[in-house]
Amino acid sequence: LADQSTHYNIRQMALDMLQCSKEGLLHATRTQRITKSLVEAFDRPPTTKL
After folding, report:
1. pLDDT tens, 14-24?
2. Of 1, 12, 32, 38, which sits most exposed with the smallest number of CB within 10 A?
């Protein structure tokens, strides 16, 4: 019974970690997009800047 419980807890922990890494990937992609658009904004000639 204890072993089964431990197994379940470890599995749950692994699922949580997987979920976190998925969210982390989404966040990283978003950050990358924002950074890229910032760089592109700086690369444009000054006349098109706000």
Report:
1. 999 999 999 99
2. 1
